[in-house]
Amino acid sequence: MTRKYLLPLLALCGALLGLFIVFKTQKKVAVPPILFPPAVSPYENSIAGAGIIEASSNNIAVGTPFNEIVTKVHVTEGDRVQVGDILFELDLRNFNAQLEVAKASLNEAIVVLEDKRKQFSFYERVKDPRAVSEQAYQLAHYAFLEAEKNVQIAQANLEVAQSNIDRSIIRAPISGAIFQVNIHPGELAPVNPFFSNQSTAQTVSQGSIMLMGAIDPFQVRIDIDEDDAWRYKEGARATGFVRGNSNINFPLDFFKLEPYIIPKSSFTGQTTERVDTRVLQVLYNFEKGDLPVYAGQVLDIFIESEPINTVVQR
Q1: Mean pLDDT for all residues in the chain
Q2: What are phi and psi of 60, to 5 degrees?
Q3: How many separate domains does the chain show?
């Protein structure tokens, strides 16, 4: 009789012991505090949007006028440049050879011109018109005019050759900062760029081998959803919040409104962006100073607006 109930009793005791151990050892995991809570609008009534930081000059995709090999790159990412500073140089051997040919052609044309000038001067000094045929006089005259034109053509060819050399030295169009460099010595700098793995969606979409722009001040391009566009008042106050740390925020100064609603691009980082809705784009400026923000960074933006009831009544 005892053996009949022994095994069930032991099983029950084991189950109870297991439950006791589970409840005894189970500890509640403390929820960690939120160090940087989501951004909260500083205005009583506001419009929320996403803004991407860009150069106040708009991002400039530096290009090249010739399909040529790069011999030297003078800048790297993050460099500050002044207008006219050299960014990179193309192989000049071909253009230098053309320049020498153009110089030789100009010298030859000048010699021919002097010869034709002297020949024509002989006919002009003849006092008796009957001593020279009209045909010979006209031939000498037009040969002299042709020689003058050939000198002008040779001079123009020389200027073209020199211009090609000057254009092969790519210089900064404005003062600003270098954002990206997608070309290196020994690589081909094509008029229609071919992109390596280092290229980003932004440089690919803009077709650049180098990206630069003015950063004093920075510019924020804010997308306002078309559903909220009617609430926006031009020149309204705005505040930008750094994603990941809402404690870093700063006021924005109104720059301009682009009065054309365009398809919105999702910030996926892919070459082809997904279009899902339409947005009104507003541009604001701010001084970077010591702020840890960079071109291409996305900010959370809050723009002050009037109460919805007030806007509707108006």
Answers
A1: 84
A2: -100, 120
A3: 3
Contact 112, 150 (CB under 8 A): yes
What count of other Cβ atoms lies within 10 Å of the Cβ of residue 97?
Answer: 11
204-232 per-position pLDDT tens digit:
444 578 999 998 899 999 999 998 999 99
Question: Do the Cβ atoms of 151 and 113 come closer than 8 Å?
Answer: yes
Helix (H) or strand (E) holding 24: helix 2-25
For the chain, the helix, strand and coil percentages under 3-state DSSP, each to the nearest 5: 35, 30, 35
103 CB-near residues (< 8 Å, 6+ apart): 158
Distance, in Å, from the CA atom of 298 to the CA atom of 304, rounded to the nearest integer, reads 19
Here the CATH number for the domain that contains residue 106 is 1.10.287.470
CB atoms within 10 A of CB 275: 11
pLDDT, one tens digit per residue, over 293-309 is 999 899 999 999 988 77
- Residue with token string 């009534």: 45
- Examine the domain organization and report whether 177 and 284 are in the same domain: no
Whole-model pTM over 0.85? no
181 and 77 Cβ atoms separated by less than 8 Å: yes
- Rounded Cα gap, residues 300 and 39, in angstroms: 8
